[in-house]
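Re: [help] complex structure
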Amino acid sequence: MSEVKAYAAHAEKENLKPLDIERRNVKATDVEIDILYCGVCHSDIHTVNDDWGGAKYPVVPGHEIVGRVLNVGDKVKNFKEGDLVGVGCMVDSCQTCDSCKEGLEQYCENGAIMTYDGKDEHLGGHTFGGYSEKIVVDKEFVLSIPENIDIKATAPLLCAGITTWSPLQHWNVKKGDKVGVIGLGGLGHMGVKFASAMGAHVVMITTSPSKSDDAKSLGADSVLISKDEKQMEEHANSFDFLLNTVPVGHDTNPYIALLKRDATMVMVGAIEPLDPIHGGGLIIGRKSVAGSVIGGIKETQEMLDFCGEHNITCDVEMIDIQNINDAYERVVNSDVKYRFVIDMKSLKN
Amino acid sequence: MSEVKAYAAHAEKENLKPLDIERRNVKATDVEIDILYCGVCHSDIHTVNDDWGGAKYPVVPGHEIVGRVLNVGDKVKNFKEGDLVGVGCMVDSCQTCDSCKEGLEQYCENGAIMTYDGKDEHLGGHTFGGYSEKIVVDKEFVLSIPENIDIKATAPLLCAGITTWSPLQHWNVKKGDKVGVIGLGGLGHMGVKFASAMGAHVVMITTSPSKSDDAKSLGADSVLISKDEKQMEEHANSFDFLLNTVPVGHDTNPYIALLKRDATMVMVGAIEPLDPIHGGGLIIGRKSVAGSVIGGIKETQEMLDFCGEHNITCDVEMIDIQNINDAYERVVNSDVKYRFVIDMKSLKN
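Output below.
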């Protein structure tokens, strides 16, 4: 066991504060990582505040982790000291169920182990995330980060990136498709970048006309203001795919009306109850509403490789860990373009 | 023009009564049909009562029509006098849009013409349905009915049959799949018969334990009582496909929990708002909720041919047209196994 410095919420709804935590010793299949950067995901805040229930304190949040390998176990062949690596939302899964065998560990039928607040099967208790000096992770959940792109801006790829990449790939978004990305935040801005890089005609769908210029600079071909009924009517039945990144329950019926026959809207943000969906809106046009959560390890690596090839990173604002509570407030107020990333050097201050 | 006898609702929410209506003269591409039987669909009642708004009176309901060809136009090659034929929910569509070209006239992008209360482009006004002596229909919307099965019990195949057949085919239900049919009524009983004939393991999902024996005699392998939380828990994440035939808005979350990863529940009954769907229930497991309406002409013919080969018909209760108002009351009270069919000879009484 080694003690490392971390930032944690010690009790319910308490602000984040320094803490010493234990990390396990490096086992044969483990990779020990010196954390350079960690992204701030809205779900970190939900967990710290126990918004979803079941939070285990102290919570050390953080599942958008980038760092360099410090040490590897005897059985680790694909990583060595100094490698640039990442860890996302999961640190373990059963590896034996159908989902794991298909490379979809996020849907592990025995329950994937989340990077923080998951069940720690090594030390007991629960897992601690990336607002920390170091992390020790099984090699199967360590990702290789391309060296040629801006390292600090790769961290949010591990959650915001894969959460949007996976459904775009799974629902076969392709060149020329008309794709709508609903909501321009941490997820939405990556959805726009990816769909654009895949060759789709990308429409940013937002309530805020003020976001038009930003959306276009991220790669959107046009902007649809969802409060404008006339615009919405003009785009009715025209989308091949909709990626809905809105993080809370809302009325999805106006978006369903935008889908072409046989097209799908995928929810990646809202885990709460959605406003009542009109059955007729699905029935007339054989439309679907689906959900998708993060992505498997194999597809996360594919995404990272794609980002290396296409020079895609997240738009980030760097902070020191000492400013994390202010950053949380700004995330809650949607006042960030588009993701905070913590420079973990600041933890040593 | 010829005058024919029909049964119609003359004014809003009025009971059905006899009426003389006009049918168009037989044009070159038309088929004139002597109606033998017409099924009673719940949507007939919704239209007569103007439950969905926009009903045009007099309403002559009926879109599960079986009869014999009386007369055909010069350009009709595939039907001749005396042929046993059917007409379903549609009598025309643009035939030029993508949906029509793909044989999915029910999703015609210019709007299919419904068999009753649709826009009549021949005589003006609106179309009149099958509670009638005769109907004149374009050859493209006439179906061939197998002679080897019980004729009167084929009528509901034209709506209840195709409404359940189409999604089972579209979502590739196959041998060995675990398929749940939710709700045992006119649609549900056909869903059970079809899914069973396709080789699926069929589970009838119902609130009513009293329906167990009936479901099994229709072909269900087992019955799941949806009010029994323990049973529902045992079947969680186990279904390859769910066909939801419940005709009104309801809480679909317990059913979504039954779906396997990547599986779909298709709504074919409820056109109203559904109770709020929890985003998390879709997201965890990449599940889908979709809708589907009737089916195209090509697949309707395929279904009828399949029924001829597998000796599949609907379970029906025959009535005379003079008893239609009582039948409507019984449909509303779910007191029919499983579809009323009107013997149209009674119209001549």
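DSSP finds ten helices and 17 strands in chain B.
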